[in-house]
Every structure is written in C-alpha cells, then in structure tokens.
Amino acid sequence: MAPPSATTTETQTNGSSNPSTIAPLEPGLSEKQAKVQMPKFPGPPKFTDKYEEREYLKGRLAAAFRIFGRYGFDEGVAGHITLRDPVDPTTFWVNPFGVAFSLIKKSDLIQVDHSGKIIDGGPVRLLNAAAFMIHSAIHSARPDVMCAAHSHSIYGRSFCTLGKTLDIITQDSCAFHNDHVLYENFNGIVLAEKEGNDIAACLGNKKAAILQNHGLLTVGQTIEAAVFWFISLEKCCHAQLMADAAAGGRGGETVKIGDAEAGYTYKTIGTPIAGWFNAKPLFDVMEKEASADYLQ
Prior knowledge:
This protein is α+β, with helices and mostly antiparallel strands and 296 residues long. The chain has helices at residues 50-70, 129-141, 154-159, 193-203, 223-249, 259-269, 272-290; strands spanning 80-84, 91-94, 110-113, 118-121, 147-151, 180-183, 208-211, 215-220. Strands 4-3-2-1-5-8-7-6 form an 8-stranded mixed β-sheet, with helices on both faces.
C-alpha cells in the first residue's frame, strides 16, 4: 500500500495549477511528529513588464550556457538551450551556431520564430538547424515549457546507447520517477521537421528524454529547472553506469527503490520549484565568478 504522502495529488511538470512549495513529510509522519520541517521554497522573480522580464531571462540563459561550458557539455558546435520569449511566446532565443558555450553573452543570443527566421540578436546570426527542429517542436507542443536543453554530454550519450530509461536506484534519480522517457529512434542529425515532432510527441508531458544513440534532453518551466534537470540526469546516468558495472562484476544487480518511496521522494525533489531552487547555487556561483561578463 502506498504511503499517505505518495497518494497526495501534486502538480507535476505539465500541471495547470500551481505546484506546492512545501516539501512533503516522510510516509506515516505527521506534521506534529516532525521535529524539523522543510521550509517553504523561495521562487523565481515575477515581472509586470514583459520587456524587463525578457532582459532578465536572456541574462539567465547566457549564464546557463556558461554553466554548461563549465560542466564540459559542449562538443564542438553541438548542443543548444532555448528560451521562450516572454514578449512574443511564439518565438524563442537560442545560442548562435559556432559560438563557444563558455564565451556566450546575453548580446550574442539570437531570436528565432517558428518558421526558422532569425528576427533579432547578436552579430553571429547562424542557426543550428537541429536546434530549430527539436526546440521549435517542443515549444509548440508544450506551452508550459519556458526552456529546453540538449547536449551530447559524455555519460548521457554513453547511457543512451543502452536503449533504456533510468533505473530508480538513488535518491537523486527519484526526481525522474515516471517523469522521463526513452526516444528509441535515431535517424542521424535532426534536420527534418517530422523528427523534431516525433521527439516532442515522445516527450509528452515529461521533463526529460533519453534520445537513443544521441544524448539527453530536458525541459522546464524556468531556465534554472531545465539546466538543473540536465545536470542531474547526466549525473544519474553516470551513477547508473558505475553501479551497473559494479553489480555486474559481483554477479548481482542494483537494488531498486520502490514505486511508493520513489513517488513521495519525487514530491520533494522532482517538482518544478525544486528544480529552480536546486539550480540557484549554480547560477549564484556563475554570477560571482563571471563578474557579469555574460550580461553584456
């Protein structure tokens, strides 16, 4: 039987209502019994001026690329993160093709409409066709998604050759419990509209996809959440590769977390606000160390 907290209705990635910002208690533990309760999470800033919001979010997107660069998620010119424009939600901002993640500034970003036309942006106005095909399909299919991230990270692209989703074997992997999918097709570089639409359809209402023989893809209601889910999914892939190898070497297999336990853990670490809050330290460090260079 599922614990009480595992049966409580909670908005997930694609919910229409506002998710709770209060972390749930352990199963069977009442609020009175808890000696220390989880605090209410803070949230992202809110804006009344959409143009002011755009400038803020473009700065956060530039910081996201710097973070990806620091984690080594760049592979030549592959990889992209997109931001739905708050002023014109039918368009999105993306990195210019061929500019290093670690050098991207706010002024470098380019704005693209859903026909693939570059309508604004920095001096390098080159659009990665694969980025457009994947991200335009996702932003069209998922109005709730503010940001989508994809890269050819080493452990993600290693794990995706196995043709399977994550096993829920660690507390961190519980953030992806029933909230990620496997896209089983690989037809080369995504240059066709159908391929992008197929990826978006497979993703459905989930926060992450393992693209077989390709890499990882994450989405979020905020830039921060999409970035954190990508980093966390990459680390979960790394952990499972090592755990599977160690277990196999001993002639056994890893111990899986039960559905009920994974479900109530998800309610603490797998919600949109948890994704935003987990990424906050990463962005704080980047802001401190980059000395606002990325905001130019």
